[in-house]
Backbone:
């Protein structure tokens, strides 16, 4: 990366300005490379069910406001089979 010194003279600033802009733009281009297209979850996890992939998509959303919360995740159809097969014991009654 090049370092330029800016002097008080406006003539020198006008001369150096194009070089400064070019260096700044090339630095920004190098530090922010384009992202590759995302891989689908079906490609990454070919043996997962469609319900599991749907749950993953909803849990791994970048924006927190759009992301599924824990209560909604536990009510997702992916867990229906587990709820049906497990009996939750009744709480003890104190007398």
Residues:
């Amino acid at each position: 990366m090049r370092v330029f010194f800016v002097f008080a003279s406006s003539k020198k600033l006008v001369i150096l300005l194009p070089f400064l802009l070019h260096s700044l733009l090339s630095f920004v281009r190098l530090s922010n490379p384009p992202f590759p297209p995302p891989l689908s979850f079906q490609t990454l996890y070919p043996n997962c069910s469609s319900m599991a992939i749907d749950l993953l998509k909803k849990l791994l959303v970048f924006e927190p406001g759009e992301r599924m919360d824990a209560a909604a995740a536990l009510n997702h159809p992916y867990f229906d089979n587990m709820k049906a097969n497990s009996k939750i014991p009744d709480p003890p009654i104190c007398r």
The chain has a mean pLDDT of 75. Residues 1-34 form one domain. The helical segments are 10-31, 41-44, 50-59, 70-74, 80-85. The first helix runs from residue 10 to 31.
